[in-house]
User: Which sequence fits this backbone?
């Protein structure tokens, strides 16, 4: 396609995410978004199957969020959160605590998911130190997991398949095991905890779906097992709901489906409805109480410059309004049914290994993708924005996507995958 002038002139100065700059296809210039549509500089319109890395749960440009952000911009875009506070941040904290239910009621704001996980890890480590217990400096995390790109979080991602194996010797060492899906994994985990439980600070997991690690699903029973093991060994259980939060798995939060609660929970991606960067680490009173002290050294020493950004908090409050006033969870349920039916034909293809759906997440796992750039190009030519990674092609559309658009999206994916082995 003909690149607009700003793209041609700016491209030599940009460094793109997860991209070999020499060989990667140049990114598509987008000039406008609305609903589930991305409008390209050359006038083409794509149906978005990714909701911009799972953030735009209400579709793009929802007027209610735009209005809230505009009003906040006029009143006060941002003030430092050290020593100052404001209504959008405190109202959001109260509302998140209300949604998460009893026991998860202390909100610490950051501006990205990775940093929210870093804060969760710092909280868990210091939880023990503040109680005078030394030597609990490791986390138990799981194969297939993804928790971020910063140095602390890289160390709790899947060590083999993850994107960070290059840095192995430079990262803190943690215990990475298989999720206890079956009895054998459960026994291995129990044995590991019996032997090494006393050097652990906590257990970290993405509940129900390991997202960026391969869109791998597990049952609520796995989470109940982790809760029981954490309790038996006195460990903190941390749920990373950065991907799963806000309706993506069919319930507002994934942990609800297991009927148990974590001690710390992280949120980001859809928190502001895909408009502004914001993340939250939410602690239980058990965790918070370990920091409540007359000793200044027991304070949590963390405070991002843009912590509690008022624009982002206003956007998040507006996003929560929409969960109250519009039928998001019913829409997620309808998408779930449509995905299950619409992706089913892919199962027949010789190169498809698995088709799986949970909530508004539809996954087609292939034996392999030999030419990912070619596959992406064919998807764009079919009029959809879908971003395959590893062996998977997945759909995580806006929860507001129209029935017809979702049908077109799935037809395009099934068509492109069916025409040739990718
Ligand atoms: C995306 C993601 C992160 C990292 O969030 P960033 O905002 O990209 O730093 C962490 N955990 C999970 C489960 C994620 O999906």
Assistant:
């Amino acid at each position: 396609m003909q690149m607009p002038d700003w793209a041609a002139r700016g491209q030599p100065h940009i460094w793109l995410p997860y991209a070999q700059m020499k060989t990667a296809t140049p990114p598509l210039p987008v000039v406008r978004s609305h609903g589930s549509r991305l409008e390209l500089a050359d006038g083409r319109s794509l149906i978005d199957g990714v909701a911009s890395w799972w953030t735009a749960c209400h579709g793009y440009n929802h007027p209610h969020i735009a209005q809230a952000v505009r009003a906040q911009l006029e009143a006060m875009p941002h003030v430092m959160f050290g020593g100052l506070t404001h209504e959008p941040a405190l109202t959001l904290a109260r509302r998140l605590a209300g949604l998460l239910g009893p026991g998860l009621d202390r909100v610490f704001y950051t501006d990205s998911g990775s940093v929210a996980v870093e804060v969760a890890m710092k909280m868990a480590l210091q939880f023990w130190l503040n109680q005078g217990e030394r030597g609990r400096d490791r986390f138990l995390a799981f194969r297939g997991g993804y928790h971020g790109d910063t140095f602390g979080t890289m160390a709790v991602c899947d060590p083999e398949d993850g994107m960070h194996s290059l840095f192995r010797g430079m990262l803190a060492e943690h215990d990475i095991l298989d999720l206890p899906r079956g009895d054998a994994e459960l026994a291995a985990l129990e044995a590991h905890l019996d032997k090494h439980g006393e050097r652990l600070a906590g257990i970290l997991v993405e509940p129900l779906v390991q997202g960026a690690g391969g869109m791998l699903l597990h049952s609520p029973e796995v989470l109940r097992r982790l809760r029981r093991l954490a309790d038996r060994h006195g460990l903190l259980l941390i749920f990373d709901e950065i991907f799963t939060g806000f309706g993506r798995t069919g319930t507002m939060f994934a942990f609800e489906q297991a009927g148990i609660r974590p001690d710390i929970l992280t949120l980001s991606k859809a928190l502001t409805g895909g408009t502004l960067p914001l993340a939250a680490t939410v602690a239980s009173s058990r965790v918070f109480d370990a920091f409540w002290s007359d000793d200044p050294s027991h304070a949590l020493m963390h405070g991002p410059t843009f912590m509690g950004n008022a624009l982002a908090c206003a956007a998040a409050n507006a996003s929560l309004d929409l969960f109250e006033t519009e039928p998001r969870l019913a829409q997620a349920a309808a998408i779930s049914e449509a995905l299950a039916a619409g992706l089913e034909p892919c199962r027949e293809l010789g190169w498809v290994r698995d088709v799986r759906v949970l909530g508004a997440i539809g996954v087609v796992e292939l034996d392999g993708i030999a030419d990912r750039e070619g596959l992406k190009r064919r998807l764009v030519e079919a009029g959809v924005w879908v971003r395959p990674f590893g062996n998977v092609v997945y759909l995580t559309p806006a929860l507001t996507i129209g029935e017809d658009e979702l049908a077109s999206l799935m037809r395009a994916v099934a068509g492109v995958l069916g025409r040739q082995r990718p």
Summary: The chain has a mean pLDDT of 96. The first strand starts at residue 30 and ends at 34. The first helix runs from residue 5 to 10. The chain has two domains: 5-58+327-419, 63-325.
